[in-house]
Records
---
Amino acid sequence: MATTILNLPDDELIHPGNRACAGCGLSIIYRIGLKAIGRDTILVVPPSCLTVMQGLYPIAATQLPCLNVTFASTAAAATGVVAALKAQGRENTKVVAWAGDGGTSDIGIQALSGACERGEDFLYICYDNEAYMNTGVQRSGTTPQGVLTTTTPVIGKLQKSKNVPAIMAAHGLNYIATASASYPLDLYDKIKKAMGMPGTKYMHVHTPCPSGWGFDPRYSVKIGKLAVETGIFDLYEIENGEFRLTGPSKKLTPSKLKPVTEYFDTQSRFRALKEDQIASIQAGIHEKWDNY
Amino acid sequence: MHVIESGNVAAATGVKLARTQVIAAYPITPQTPLTEKLSEFVSKGQMTAQYIPVESEHSALSVCIAASSTGSRTFTATSANGLLYMSEQVHWASGARLPIVMCVVNRGVGAPWTVWNDHQDSISQRDTGWIQMHACDHQQILDTVLKAFMVAEKVSIPVMVCYDGYLLSHSYMPFEIPKQEDVDRFLPSFSSDCKLDPEHPLNQNTVTLPDVRPDIHGNMSPGYMEIRHNLQQDLICSLDVVKEVEDRFKGIFNRGGSPFIESYLCEDAEYVAVCMGSLSYQLRDVVDQLRNDGQKVGVAGVRLYRPFPNQAVIDAFSGKKGLVIFEKGISYGNQGPLFTDITSALYQVEERPFAHNYILGIGGREIKTQDLLDTFRKSIQSGRKNEIKTEWIGLKL
């Protein structure tokens, strides 16, 4: 049974008041995600907006134990926590690594790949706001083509984004899922499911960022939904190798997809896109959806 | 029980006897046989540790940092570029005050590639806030691993146990394996007051600010500068702990006793050769020969490089006529780092011995006993000239 707002646990694991920007997609997924993760969990967090959002010493926004680690080491650190818990017979306690897209797709991918290959027992959540937002909007491996960032100014990023869930799928993980900050209950159910599975689990969460993407904070949820409705970001699970679209993406068909311009027009980061680039992106999305 | 085994096996045996709970390592010459041995101990059930065969040295130390933060006794080992690759984590481990023990099987660093011994790898990590101990033979390797865990856990500062690649790591020497019950008596199991635990949530290594800051109860908490100052103070205080642990070890195992400087015929010596690692034992032959010629000479092996035992250096060397400092590392653009440290310690002494600095054995260049003898003689004959100069010996330019 899918969780609804009526049976979502009341227990809040994040203290009221934190350092997130107004309209931050991460603050939605962090609040709902921690409810799914539960209290008997140790978090591992590399430098990212989450580091700041969680609070500056000696004040912390999270009620879970959290190990802040270096940028490249997230998955290795999660491995170390798991190993220590095992060595001490504390295996009921779960481990969740929570990193941004730069920390995952770029600097952290070696450690993540190593941990996946070893099958380390933890959930890795990548919140993808599609650039290095904490350092001021620099391009990352998951920044989409054409997007303006402070290191892809004027003409936008020339390269396509890296498909991290597909890289994780190539490791043969038991569970891989995508989710969106605009569909927090779907996120909740997927985290719940992942927490009950053995081995390395990977979740990739699309996370709108008002200041980095250039939109009014009140539109965060709407813009996240548009990414799904245009077929740009798809919600799916790969469970024991089986791919299936989930939630709102499951209900979509190629003919029902909204034009990508509806999504692009909401954000200033896409303003450098030219007609032919948009046409090419739109064609790519149709091609992707024709193969689903 | 006495065995004849390699230095790497001596280290692995120490790690096993210490009942280490989490081991993570990545292969690099000449450290590899040490981690192979540990994986064998674990696979055969002779040791109950979690052995994590990580994909890089950076991850090796990351695993240890996280496992130590979760309250387990942890160990890793590396050499040369492996140590440099984990350097970010080396700083992190001491900043986070984690009692990790790491063997550094000393090897020269690239480029160009060399797999052979010198001390540039651990020397380059001198200022990371770790305790650095040097072992001179196989027995010392095993014993130092045990002492390192105890020191690390008493002061919450990680310890590097350094020993010479190949010369010690791959050579076979007799050594005694202590009884497990004696080791258990010496080294109690590890317990941490601030481990990651959902019952008592802590947010560890959060962002600090330049200034002190009140917590939610209004109590002032330290800023980055106070935290780093504490590390420096505790490192200085750890000199006493190193001595205490050495005495405790000697009380149980009847070995050791010189944690700072291991001296050979230094008492009445006028001239002393100073170095680190296995070279100090090679220099004993040189000293014996010079003694036969009627020279009053000795050799001092520096066992603890960080924190630097300044007072022990003053006690050992003030009143001597001359020091001849042999080093397998260099602070490029200046001089041998041990030379800098020793002359700095002796600056406040009124009757300073002369000090000459020789760089040798870089990248495994053979150190000939005759060369050591000639160099020592030359230094003695040069009188009290206290010029600052660094000479390389064994060079073939």
---
Amino acid sequence: MEKKYYVEMRGVNKSFGSFQASKDIHFGIEKGKLIGLLGPSGSGKTTILRMLAGLETEDSGDILIDGNIVNHIPASKRGIGFVFQNYALFRYLTVYENIAFGLRVQKWPKAKIKARAEEMLQLVGLEETAKRYPNQLSGGQRQRIAFARALAPEPQLLLLDEPFAAVDAKVRQELRSWLREMITRVGVTSIFVTHDQDEAIEVADEIIVTNQGRIEQIGSPKEIYRNPQTPFVAQFIGQSAEVDNFRQFTGFTNAESNAERAIVRPEYITVAKQGEFLKYSLDAEEGVVEQTAFRGNEIELKIRLKGNLLTARRLLDDAPVEVGEHVRVFISRVYAFDEQKAYVIENAALNTQESLVI
Amino acid sequence: MKTQNKGGAVKWLLVAVSAFFLIVMLILPLVYVLITAFREGIQPFLAAVTDPYALKSIQLTLEATVFAVIINTIFGLFAAWSITKFQFRGKKVISTLIDLPLTVSPIIAGLIYVLTFGRQSFLYPYLKAAGISIIYAVPGIVLATIFVTFPFISREIIPVLTAAGTDEEEAAALMGANGWTIFRRVTFPHIKWALLYGIVLCTARAMGEFGAVSVLSGHLRGKTNTMPLYIELLYQGYDFTGAFAMSAILVVMAVCILILRNVFEYRGKKNEE
């Protein structure tokens, strides 16, 4: 049975001069979902968002909202809430007037405008800023107000362009969970653009990965993370080290697939000092630590293994490892890829009981 | 700021040179204009400025200025808006053309209009049939004034609009606002002070315009003489008191405008913070 999508793009193309920003974009989004459009800068994610909003016109293809083609409906009539990257709050209007703007434009009755604006201020917890101007707010407060302003006219679809890019790291962390919670509470279908994979994985129900104007993969964060389907996704997601021939590693020698190159992520590498307990001891190989770096909650290691430099992690409480030390390394999974596809390949040891040494 | 404190001698030398230059080039002549205007007492001054021809020239100058400012404000807003908010072919050409009056000598501007609307023009028979006279008449003076002053307003607004970007307008449009509402509530507050500043500059230039107006006016005393033209006429006729009396009025108007200009500039800067 075909799924019922609330927002859909069918074969959408868009060029700016000779630059093709969107190539044959197809996707569908179910009502009430929070979607992350993830990709490196210049990958065409913002163009997709702006076309949905009606701020850019597609060259070909159809955009559907709630089952209707909206190609020729101007931005002002699409009833979409939009949060801009730099918030685009009206500088010469107070916070209250910013939020009320859309309602006044849509000729809501006075009493309802007041009630709604106050409700939104309360929702974002910034009642006390009503009379202030945007330049008197902190970055995080501005973001909340932009969110409140976009939601005030009760849009059915909320679009957010890099909503966390303009705030500092600490506030960003806070805002992420805040936004997630708000959107769940309001229940509005939302799409946000980000270049930060952690952000997308943490916040989104579903992720659309874009690269060079194309959609690479659509799936839940878990799927994207665990089963990358294209070489790009395998490399882009996670903290990856690339190896030219993964069959040189023990446990991958007989791997099926034609691919040779692979991505190895730190979370699939276990590092043990000599003499330390290692579950799959027989399949571990010896590597040399080249670099150690303190990352706050963990130690990041660069390990040379058969000529490849891999990134691995050890917990802060684990016995310290030194540069030049010979350690035992076990790789449990790699993402092998050829030109078109990516394949998940597990260490053969995981499927054979015999190699388990206790 | 340390580097500036170190060169104390250089600093004062530069200040002294600039001050000397300003005094010789500007303040002295301006003071001299005022002194000469009142040399023979207040009576001849009043007589000179209340002369019917003088009054007529003041009136004509104000008229031309008001027309030029109104028309250029509208044109300047449209031009600045279209150049900064839209992408289109020929945008560079338009923004370059806007600057043309700044580089072309005003006298050529005058001649262009004489050619376009004068007797030798193909338009002349139609204009005559419609009973419109442009050359050697008030409309010609207004046209010439508009021509020489039209870059002033758009030039002031364009940088402000460029700096402001289009995000706020887009945000307003997405909420369903129409063009007028967007302009009134979002764009206008941004450009308010720059616009006033441009209007002031435009006014100052319009009042003082001599070259282009001189070509088109025909120097009909009491009909097509603006203040600068009338001053020249008096001066040529060795009526120094009259010439300087009128000049004094023009100078005072210019100083008022200068003060206004500084007020607007200050407010504009404060507004940006």
---
Amino acid sequence: MKCKNVEKNILDFIEGKTKEKEKIREHLEKCSKCRNLYNDFLLILDNSNKITMPSYDENFWKERIKYIKEKKLPNFKLKPLIVNISLCIIFLLTFLFTRTYNSNLKKSISAAKIEIINYELPFTEEEIIQNLEYINEEEVEKIIDVILKGF
Amino acid sequence: MIDEKRFEEYYLTYANKIYGLAFRLLNDHNDALDIVQESFFRAYKKKNSFKGLSKFSTYLYRIAVNLSYDFLRKKSKIKKIENLNYENFPFYSNKRNFEDCIRCDDIAEQIEKEVDNLTEKQKIVFILKTYEEFTYQEIANILKSRIGTVKATYFQSLQKIRENLKKKGVIKNEM
């Protein structure tokens, strides 16, 4: 086994969770570099747990649990309410705006229609027919129909 | 779903553990108590959505870790401001004095101090693995990370502690 592989598996070896225990053990006996790594890690891990943390008894925590249960939610609950209200206002304003805009549009369209209806042609029907002598009557009627339909 | 009674049981089981974790991360008693309070408050709000203890504890540790991270970040910002202010006082040093530690001849204490020099990620992985004795899988669940990443981070944290202890002569440079 190579040093690289031992290094990779050294933590599992320390925890006794590797299948290659024997190979690693053999390597550690021969290789001082890996043996040092193993010994140093063991030293660190063995000594790590020697400092105990301050801890409290049940009564201390029991007294504090009421603060957890009684603690109210902070004001951020208001945020969704504000967002909802502002969304409603935006929706209402948009609705009102589009409604007035549509009614104005309708008014201007109908005004334009009246203008078109009242629009006077520069020539009367007869004048047109007179100027289109070389076209037969049927065709003239068709042209007039087309003109009138256009309005 | 966790009822009131079970929540209290879980609370009494984990309060000291969460406190220990937060204390190791923050090095401050009051901050650690705040972390316990806030973590359990958040878990209490969501108590109806947990199916079992494992999910509950994972969630609890995750909140505690994240809250501690936030605390550390806020603290580091404050520290930066403090450092700027202290530059005006040439005789003041707010750096930790490791010389004292070597004199006290206590390896455990020096390791504890070296844990403080780890990066945030290395520190939390080291604490969860070494002190809280979680498996790699459990740590990966708490940190929402991969087992491989957790393993690598743990190895790096041990290597870093080892190197620093060597520099200080606590661990001998054997040939």
